[in-house]
Amino acid sequence: MPWAKTDGLRTAVIGGxxxxxxxxxxxxxxxxxxxxxxxxxxxxxxxFGFLLLANGCHSLRQLGIDPGSRLGQPIASVRMVNSTxxxxxxxxxxxxxxxxRSRLLDCLMEGVPPDLIHFQHQLEGFEWEDGLARNARFxxxxxxxxDVFLAADGMGSQCRKEVGTFRGKRSGRVKEIVASVNLPxxxxxxxSCFLKVLDPEGGLGAGLVPLGDGxxxxxxxxxxxxxxxxxxxxxxxxxxxxxxxxxxxxxxVINATDFRQVHLWxxxxxxxxxxxxxxxLVLAGDAAHPLLPFTSQGVNTxxxxxxxxxxxxxxxxxxxxxxxxxxxxxxxxRPQLLPHVRDGRAMxxxxxxxxxxxxxxxxxxx
Length: 366
Prior knowledge:
By secondary structure, the protein is an alpha+beta fold.
């Protein structure tokens, strides 16, 4: 990466997901001291996978990662069908790659010393002095000092409260059931096509995303005002009841799934925060701007955040200018994120109440 090396600035990343590891990679590559603090005992593979779009692919290139076939399955088109199998639309994607979560995390860690990540570190808060976070406090008793703290701790961010602009969040009306399955013949049959099936009455849909290695991610979206949210032990019955008229590929992946590995996700609908930083503490990814997943922009915008923050900090002349650089980050990123918030809400509305003049082709890969 053609960034100038900066000595002396100590950086700490809170959270070891895709955004946190992208930050760690970018900061390490330009010579900054960086440590990552992750609350779990290992890198979390939940979430199954992502659809990397053009902006996410560009960000990965900035981090020295080729987003081509080595990373995942290139997705050349999206095919939308109704529950009887009739095609509603079939359109190309300019640049997209379906990738498993574990593969993306592994690629972000390539060339980065593994001892940068400290597991089982649950953040409790920060010690503040003169408007700056001096130390991070963890539940295991550790106090860690840094010149800048980068919060990539997700939708339930503890750091967001520390910034002081916490706003209430609400559960999205549409929830998702997500899993992965090994079906080489169907993965091969789909090839580079992302298939999505929609109930013409609205509020129910299923998607199949090939990963190119014999595996697929599948997901089902449902309107909680039309369908009662199932408990974990009811998910299999819920799917077989409500998807019985869907095309065979949807039913086949459900029948081949180990339901002990199925997850029910609760997307968050949140207004943008009024502020993304406080002193030398800054929010990134879902911690800063949780998005409804219809746009598939969650991971892509998080990677963009990581690239810009890394660039700014790698050009930093000293700790005293960190707050100004974090202001620059927010001023640049916030206008770029607001359209995704609006688009996600518009797509969710079109999903539950389809009709003329509304977006018809929402994408979603949790």
